[in-house]
């Protein structure tokens, strides 16, 4: 299975949007060099307030470009980086991957830890955006469509146009849960 990287983004400040870059460097065990969420322990402010010593399972945020297509068709004007993702992919079913999947991104490898749990800050990007990235699954449960989070296993540079190589973990597969 193979997809591609469409855009890469980062931001040294704790704001929702991240700026598109020509290249980002992933640092093993830390995240995106120069990004506000870089660190061994959690850097998301709401999670730091609960427990600043918890491990950072949200070092890299990946979002599928197909979501931007879906949102655009629904009337939302959002672009890569606007929802805080570091890597925008195409032709990768990020939400369907099991926990522990490893993604080769350029020179780097990211292990998927779970789903991004969208927050109301998305409504600051575009009114109604948070509701638009939530859905219901076939069992009536909440389906989160705002991408996946991961940790950096192998550092290196990632650029738009890089291939995304998918390595599934050994079965039994674990379903993605919010992290």
User: Please, what is the CATH homologous superfamily?
Assistant: PK beta-barrel domain-like
* Count of DSSP H/I helices: 4
Number of strands: 13
Please identify the top-level CATH class. Answer: Mainly Beta
Which descriptor suits the 3D outline?
Answer: globular
Residue ranges: pLDDT <50 for 5 or more in a row? Answer: none
Topology:
Blueprint: E1 2-10, E2 19-21, E3 24-27, E4 31-32, H1 45-50, E5 60-64, H2 65-73, E6 87-90, E7 102-105, E8 108-115, H3 122-125, H4 129-132, E9 134-136, E10 142-144, E11 148-154, E12 156-158, E13 163-167
Parallel strand pairs: 5-6
Antiparallel strand pairs: 1-2, 1-6, 1-13, 3-4, 3-12, 5-11, 7-8, 7-13, 8-11, 9-10
Kindly summarize this structure in a few lines.
13% of the residues lie in helices and 34% in strands.
Q: Could you characterize what this model shows?
A:
The chain is mainly beta and 179 residues long. It has one domain (2-167): Beta Barrel (M1 Pyruvate Kinase, Domain 3). The protein has 4 helices and 13 strands. Strands 1-6-5-11-8-7-13 form a 7-stranded mixed barrel. Helix 2 (65-73) links the parallel strand 5 and strand 6 (87-90). The two termini are 25 Å apart. The model has no long low-confidence stretch (mean pLDDT 95).
